[in-house]
Write a structure and sequence with these properties.
Uridine Diphospho-n-acetylenolpyruvylglucosamine Reductase, domain 2; 19 helices; alpha+beta; seven-stranded antiparallel sheet; five-stranded antiparallel sheet; 20 strands
Length: 565
């Protein structure tokens, strides 16, 4: 497998839409009628040796796999050598062609695409820290859990990798196709299936955007509080265990998923649990799939918790002379238990970038800035604002601004939501933005931000720092020329220095972007080889042919430790 930096080998996708016109036409017809590079091993592979499908049931496959794994481990242990699983063998070009034929027979010609622009769009991302050199072989557009189950059976038959795809907004090549295979795009599975307002939960499909979900349920007086980038969809949010600006009060994705419907590699369909908020029945299967990036199963439905909309929400913006002053204020607010809903930090570079991009309709003070949301009762919000003002003044705050109405709140908060887009808008032709995230215990956040910012300046890199300071997670967005080897080397150094610095502070290599292709080596440093081996064991038991999003989180063995480290 070869990896490339964004736009070094694969050009920027030429198609802005995620689905070709014929696929969209097919989807429109369907919706209107339903209103509610091969290896030697691959070249030598033969699908005719597989037992007939009627014989090779999922239950028999699991039993035979378990027996074979146990026998192999026992023999290896008896001989005094560690058991080493064989390298995954994927289908040949001919196998993949047969799979595509079967998929078209299953889903219809218009629901399977091999068009170049579709493959490019689903296999490459200008947002990603890196991209695989290969593109997917085909794209399938299922419309139901049963469709996904049948797709998985076909892919298992022909040993074709499967890559789930919802919003395509991830940043660590989480949906890339390093081994080719089939991308499963849930574009048509984007509905609210059921809502239980009296139980404060909702059942959704994977390709609904979180903002669209909140729009559809707003009349219930409830909302779903996890709020990453606007383009994020529920499937990818589950896959990466993402969070957003509300994390300081409402937590991350794992805190809001009640159960999942999941298609396993062999096409089996499972539900991780039932619908009560509380259970102590068996393993936490829901938690196993949240954050697994599609490597253990394909999520087709999710039951999510909802929470009441607060009585009042106010937005505030406070500027400081230094990044440490801003970060220290945030830490003191947390220690004092001030009930903020959101607490975000942006450095002076980021504020200047927002001014230059001009997307917010106003000029901002070019200083390190904290953005707040306060929510709750009217009296409670007023108390929180007073406490925040006092603490900010004690930390040399330069200016205060608090929204008086909803329009002012929207205008103030727009700067935070425009941050990454503003950086991308300032790119010169040929330049890229490397966005990375690290999380640390909240007490160490002022230290890691200050040290990392100094290194960025010392290395002469144009970069901004921003993040969810309330839960110890910060981001760096670094602009660079990928064709300048010296500059690229400096960027890689500062990114992995940030990660190592975070690990030294007992932090994590990623707070919300996920591991994907980009941070496999960093994950190994974070948890150690023994923990990675346990993760591998879980994957092998559920996906013995290594077909589900292969190459992500960790490699099949230790021969490939991932880029960067």
């Amino acid at each position: 497998m070869q990896l490339v930096r964004a736009s070094r080998v694969i050009p920027t996708p030429c198609a802005p839409s995620r689905i070709s016109s014929r696929i969209l036409a097919r989807g429109a017809r369907w919706n209107s009628s339903n209103a509610s590079g091969k290896t030697k091993e691959q070249s030598e592979s033969k699908t005719s040796n597989a037992p007939p499908v009627s014989f090779w049931t999922p239950t028999k496959a699991v039993l035979v796999s378990a027996f074979a794994a146990g026998l192999g481990y026992g023999l290896a242990s008896y001989n005094g050598t560690p058991a080493k699983p064989s390298t995954p063998r994927y289908g040949s070009t001919q196998d993949f062609a047969r799979a595509i034929t079967d998929l078209k027979a299953l889903l219809g010609e218009d629901s399977v695409s091999t068009e170049e622009d579709d493959l490019q769009h689903h296999g490459y991302s200008e947002w990603s820290s890196l991209n695989a050199e290969r593109l997917p072989t085909a794209i399938a557009y299922p419309k139901s859990t049963q469709d996904v189950s049948e797709i998985a059976k076909i892919c298992t038959k022909y040993r074709m990798p499967m890559i789930p795809y919802s919003g395509g907004s991830s940043l660590e090549a989480n949906f890339s196709a390093p081994h080719g295979g089939l991308t499963i795009d849930f574009a048509f599975m984007n509905k609210v299936l059921d809502i239980h307002p009296e139980d404060l939960d909702v059942v959704v499909q994977p390709s609904i955007q979180w903002m669209a979900l909140n729009e559809q349920i707003k009349d219930t007086g409830l909302f779903f509080p996890v709020d990453p980038g606007p383009s994020a969809m529920i499937g990818g949010m589950v896959g990466t265990n993402c969070s957003g600006t509300n994390a300081v009060r409402y937590g991350t994705m794992k805190d809001w998923v009640i159960n999942l419907t999941v298609v396993l590699a062999d096409g089996s369909i499972i539900k991780t649990r039932r619908r009560p908020r509380k259970t102590s029945a068996g393993y936490n299967m829901t938690g196993l799939f949240v954050g697994s990036e599609g490597t253990l199963g394909i999520v087709t439905e999710a039951t999510l918790k909802l929470t009441p909309l607060p009585e009042q929400t106010r937005v505030g913006v406070v500027a400081f002379p230094t990044i440490r002053d801003a970060a220290s204020t945030a830490m003191q607010l947390i220690r004092k238990g001030v009930p903020v809903q959101c607490m975000e930090i942006m450095d002076d570079v980021q504020m200047d970038v927002i001014n230059q991009a001009g997307g917010t309709g106003r000029d901002w003070k070019v200083s390190p800035t904290l953005f707040f949301k306060f929510s709750g009762t009217t009296a409670g919000v007023a108390d929180s604002i007073n406490l925040t003002t006092q603490l900010a003044q004690a930390n040399k705050a330069e200016s205060f601004e608090f929204a008086k109405n909803e329009k002012e709140a929207h205008d103030l908060w727009s700067a935070r939501k425009q941050s990454l887009w503003s950086m991308m808008a300032l790119r010169k032709e040929g330049s890229e933005v490397w966005s990375t995230d690290v999380s640390v215990p909240i007490s160490r956040l002022p230290d890691i931000i200050e040290i990392s910012k100094k290194e960025l300046v010392d290395l002469g890199l144009f970069a901004s720092i921003l993040g969810h300071i309330g839960d110890g997670n910060f981001h760096a967005s670094i602009m660079y020329d990928p064709k300048d080897p010296a500059e690229l080397a400096r960027v890689k150094k500062v990114v992995y220095d940030m990660v190592d610095r975070g690990l030294d502070m007992e932090g994590s290599c990623t707070g919300e972007h996920g591991v994907g292709l980009g941070k496999k080596g960093s994950l190994r440093k974070e948890v150690g080889p023994e923990t990675i081996d346990v993760m591998r064991g879980v994957k092998r038991s559920m996906d013995p042919n290594w077909l589900l999003n292969p190459g992500k989180i960790f490699d099949h063995d230790d021969d490939g430790k991932g880029p960067g480290h």
